[in-house]
Design goal:
It is a single chain. The protein has 346 residues and is of the alpha/beta class. The chain has one domain: TIM Barrel (Alpha-Beta Barrel). It contains 16 helices and eight strands. It has an eight-stranded parallel beta sheet with strand order 1-2-3-4-5-6-7-8. Strand 5, helix 10 and strand 6 form a beta-alpha-beta unit. Helix 1 packs antiparallel against helix 14. The longest helix has 19 residues.
């Protein structure tokens, strides 16, 4: 069995996946036709070239255009339901994922069409519940506050998450970290902690590694999304802070390469993080827009980044342990993933 075949057959877990980044090309076209939306082209091959980022170097305008196409697709409640189902279906059937946390920004996803947050969120949740009942997948939803929409939006999203804490497993802060420091979101984080909602934060994806430490001290997250800049701290203190804080780092190797967070896929610090004893997971981030999937991420980790299959199993253990899902769902996922696996960082 080749490495690719072995990876394809492995049951997997994914903690860092945006619903907005899961819209299929065919679905973008179909929904555009149904809702009279404009597209650069209705030719599938042509749109595929415009919609997907396959190599570093695209301008910010081009990347934003890709996400605007995805955003426009959430044009109706029917579209929200369809896209959610397809995201679950692709993860389960194409990638053999058995534990999946999907995240989304209501202010980004529902803004363009003016959809009611509660109605749309309830549809996402009911779609996930139905899918769980018909499969061996366990899943949950994380809400995102997009920093670029400002503090008021973040506080609104946090309040919405608290009101819906029976159907929301956690909360995330995403987007431009440098211009929107953690201190702006301290009050929102406090309310989330008081409500018992765990926090993950996009940090250390760009900019200076010091932002990671500031995020940990100010917002007290249980997980950090990306975190690659921790490797830039030659003193090792940032990695040690992540380790001593018990934080799980949600790495997204291909995403980091495409956005130039790392110079090359070979230089991604995941192996270094594992060797340092950090809790790490592997994710695909925005699989459709970044033209990736978890099978590809695992294969890159083995063939380009020096990970062993025991390292992959270790990241799966970290994903189950670090998941925000309730204990019963995590136990089900652990059985699906063939635990216990005694893989330890080396």
């Amino acid at each position: 069995m080749t490495a690719e075949e072995k990876i394809s057959a492995m049951p997997k877990a994914e903690l860092h996946r945006h619903i907005e980044g899961c819209v299929r090309v065919g679905t973008v076209i179909d929904l555009a036709r149904k809702n009279n939306l404009k597209l650069p082209t209705f030719d599938p091959a042509g749109l595929d070239r415009v919609y997907k980022l396959r190599a570093p170097g695209a301008s910010l305008r081009e990347v934003l255009g890709m996400f605007e196409l995805a955003q426009a697709s959430f044009a109706s409640y029917e579209a929200v339901e369809r896209i959610t189902f397809e995201a679950l279906e692709d993860a389960y059937k194409k990638e053999n994922i058995r534990l999946l946390e999907l995240r989304y920004s209501p202010d980004f996803m529902f803004k363009k069409a003016g959809l009611d947050w509660q109605k749309a969120h309830d549809l996402i949740n009911s779609t996930a519940v139905k899918f769980e009942k018909s499969s061996n997948l366990v899943c949950g939803t994380i809400l995102i506050a997009s920093r670029i929409y400002g503090v008021e939006s973040a506080e609104k999203t946090a309040a919405f998450a608290v009101r819906n804490k029976k159907t929301v497993i956690g909360f995330d802060l995403a987007d431009n970290e440098a211009d929107y420091p953690p201190s702006l979101y301290k009050e929102a984080a406090k309310k989330l902690h008081e409500a018992g909602l765990p926090l993950t934060v996009h940090s250390g994806e760009e900019g200076h590694y010091s932002q990671i430490g500031e995020t940990i001290r100010t917002l007290k997250p249980l997980r950090i999304g990306h975190g690659v800049k921790a490797a830039d701290d030659r003193s090792g203190r940032t990695i040690e802070l992540l380790k001593s804080s018990g934080i799980t780092v949600e790495t997204n190797p291909w995403s980091n390469y495409l956005t130039r967070a790392v110079d090359s896929i070979e230089k991604h610090p995941l192996k270094k993080f594992i060797q340092a004893g950090l809790k790490c997971t592997i994710g695909a981030d925005d699989p459709e827009i970044l033209d990736t999937h978890l099978n590809k991420e695992y294969l890159l980790a083995v063939e380009k980044m020096g990970l062993t299959f025991e390292d992959l199993k270790y990241t799966l253990n970290c994903a189950v342990d670090g998941s925000f899902l309730p204990k019963d769902k995590k136990q089900q996922a652990a059985k699906e993933l063939g635990r216990p696996i005694e893989a330890q960082p080396r």
